[in-house]
Write a structure and sequence with these properties.
By secondary structure, the protein is of the alpha+beta class. The chain is about 60% helix and about 10% strand.
Length: about 325
């Protein structure tokens, strides 16, 4: 039974595409890449391709290295193979954005004052995304798709020691993510939470050396060690629900959504602006609304994959 369970977990995880969290900062940069492509603003387009490349350098590469090192040290050979493939894909994406940036700069006639302002926005964007994956480690990505699966196997076997060690490993990886991404880039408010995860890992390792009839409560504390969400979620004074209503009340979005029976909506703060994505499982992305954080007004609307890719025209 154990062999079957391990094989099943291997198949489930290996078949998954490269973790979306690895590309998350780059994915959000792509919204602004599309915006300036459509406006043919090549200077700001170049900046956002550079931003995507920087997100890869500051977020994707260290994240990939941390995970790969863990797999190698613990003998997860299949996962090593998968992660090494991701390493190649990450480098390909990096070179793609660097080349696109170089090409865009050659065409740029964007005034220097707009370039300066955009750089300030980008600095806020990057600061917002640096801690994003460590903050959500126990909710998305490696923990639920890897550690949680292995923990369920250990739970079925009532292997308390294995559960405690898995949770210790998870806490150590979470601490490493804080160390190598936000803290390494000057966001020192995350030092305390990194230390909390390291202390928690030490406690779990100590507990794993003892005999337990039932699983200690400490095995479930890792996901509760984060700051309260209000302390790190956004630096915006605007309410996400109001932003969503602003997007939905735009006449272009109202018209678009009337055609849709079922859709999902996602609101994200990007450090200087908000994006509201409307998604339908049949069509893919329907539209992305970009809203200025200072004014609360719609900057532009991008049509999604199921449409032409051009901005929705004013009614």
């Amino acid at each position: 039974m154990r062999l079957y369970q391990l094989l099943l977990v291997s198949i489930l995880i290996i078949q998954v595409l490269p973790c979306s969290a690895i590309y998350e900062g780059t994915t959000n940069a792509n919204t602004f890449i599309r915006l300036y492509e459509q406006q043919e603003d090549f200077g700001r387009l170049a900046l956002w391709h550079e931003t995507a490349a920087r997100c890869i350098t500051l977020i994707s590469i260290p994240m990939n290295e941390i995970v790969l090192d863990y797999y190698k040290r613990n003998g997860y050979h299949k996962w090593v193979e998968r992660t090494e493939k991701e390493t190649i894909e990450i480098q390909e994406r990096l070179q793609f954005h660097l080349k696109k940036a170089k090409d865009a700069w050659k065409k740029s006639t964007t005034p220097e004052n707009l370039i300066t302002t955009e750089r300030e926005k980008i600095a806020k964007f990057i600061s917002t995304w640096l801690p994003h994956y460590p903050n959500r480690f126990y909710e998305y990505g490696l923990y639920p798709t890897f550690f949680r699966e292995l923990r369920e196997i250990a739970e079925n076997e009532n292997n308390i020691k294995e559960i405690l060690l898995l949770e210790a490993h998870a806490a150590e990886i979470c601490a490493a993510l804080y160390e190598k991404i936000p803290i390494a880039n000057g966001l020192n408010k995350y030092v305390e939470i990194r230390n909390n995860h390291l202390k928690h890992a030490t406690l779990l390792r100590t507990l794993s050396q003892k005999t337990h009839k039932i699983l200690p409560d400490e095995a479930n504390y890792g996901k509760h060690l984060h700051f309260k969400r209000s302390n790190f979620r956004t630096s915006s004074q605007r309410d996400a629900n109001i932003i969503l209503q602003t997007a939905k009340s735009d006449s272009r979005i109202e018209s678009l959504l009337q055609e849709q029976k079922n859709y999902h909506e996602y609101t994200w703060f990007q450090g200087f602006a908000w994006t509201v994505s409307f998604y339908n499982h049949n069509w893919g992305n329907l539209a992305i609304v970009i809203i200025d954080d200072q004014t609360g007004k719609v900057i532009d609307i991008l049509k999604g994959d199921g449409h032409t890719g051009k901005p929705l025209s004013e009614n």
